[in-house]
Amino acid sequence: MSLLRRKKGDEKSVEPDSMPVATPINEATPRQQVCVCGKITRMTARPTAGQPALAILVSDATGTVSAVWTGRREIGGVTLGRRIAITGVPVIRGEQLEFTNPGYTLLSR
Amino acid sequence: MHVIVVGCGRVGSEVALNLASTEHDVIVIDRKVESFRRLGDDFKGTTMVGVGFDRDVLTEAGITPSSAVAAVTSGDNSNILIARVARETFGVKHVVARIYDPRRASIYERLGIATVASVAWTSARVLRHLLASESTPDWIDPSARFTIIERRVPAAAAGMTVDHVETSSEGRVVVLGRFGTASIPTSGTLLQEDDVIHVVVPAEQAALLDQALHLTEESHR
Amino acid sequence: MNVIIAGAGSVGRYMAGQLQNSGHDVTLIDNDSTIVAQGRATRTPVGVTWYLGDACEVATLTAIGAAKADVVAAVTGDDEDNLVVSLLSKQEFAVPRVLARVNNPKNEWMFNDMWGVDIAVSTPHLLTALVEEAVTVGSFVRLLSLEGGKARLAEVTLAAGSPAIAKELTDLGLPRESTVVAVLRDGHVVVPRGDTVLHQGDEVLVLVTGGVEDDVRRALVG
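ok -> structure tokens follow
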């Protein structure tokens, strides 16, 4: 068993190698692939036409974006207060950017 | 477990025949009645002619949240429709879709749909996805001390660190597949729902891993 | 506007021609090499850019400029293709307006936000509606579903017994989640105002959001 254990203090970083660099929310532009990072500040179920959808607001120091997963009621680990990275191509909805079914990475607090 | 296989091509029929010989009850749906010939005369399951993403058809096939659904028709688009209807309309947790195009597969993984690319050994992988409790290993080392097994992370284990899983299972997470892309995780990486992890564990200790991932709490009935 | 039309059957080609004519930049894509070859050779519809490929693939959508498209219309004869094109357009390319054609009315329930569809057009439904319109005066006919099912455009031709006749629009008692969009009278469009008085034979086009169709029907049909 000890053959398999990692050496303690090997790596400090939390994000796996494949996570892209995050852009501050106020610098993200609509319709461009981007990764933003922040805290989940709101979570709502947003059913439309009888189908469920999960909507969250993610905020960093510079702004807020929303992310919607259509057809899902909940996603493991996606909870209020969680730090999360969102990757995708957002639309502009009013004043805010919105991601539909984006990629996400749970980050430690 | 009640398993619904949509698409009675080579993979669908293999999966169905395999399952019918176990204690699971299987129903195969296909648009064409001729496709059922592949099942042979002794097929112990049920067949049904119909469109797999039609809600009425699935209801008639006895779909419930505790069913398992394999969308293995010859069309990627049909498979994704079937998978989403099963998951999102009927609340089925064990859904797997066969997708030929790997780029589309990564997009569908973001919808939380388990996808299996079309390769020769697909029926084995489909079965593995449907019957998470069967631990067919990826690899067993020649001395039989270690095995590498593949698991899909359930929602209950989301937020768990790789370190926690490794410590609890006495194994090592070798590769992490997320949204169709593979990476090598660090000990601090947080696991997410639907991640596919390949873990090297001491032989005979798959159960420890399943426990660590809360997979043993999943009901298959 | 940049418009991408997926599906170069008669519907797609017709739409392409109309839109290109109105000054929009239209790309028409289809997977059938014969159709595309013919379109290119005859250069019809005029001015339209033809593309041979599968619009259900991200690489293809990228190549035809989906990232800059203002509208994607998925109007193939295959509902599965239309849904996938819509989902990819919305999710991967943030296309502001996605329109999709419903071939089989049994599938209409999927043509909404779930698959990135903003506007669902059901050809059989529309055709039936038009036939119904010709045949029955006085009934409430649904024409179009918009915003992923959140809004519906409906039409009523006022029959002799309609409670709305000789009333001003403000006195109809229409619920808040509905708006009279236009009144078609004797072949011309009357822009509705609060004091517009309705006549027998008027075709009233009303937009309904929310579940108030029954109230609207009661006010216009009785």
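The beta strands of chain A are 34-45, 53-60, 63-70, 83-88, 91-93, 96-100, 103-107.
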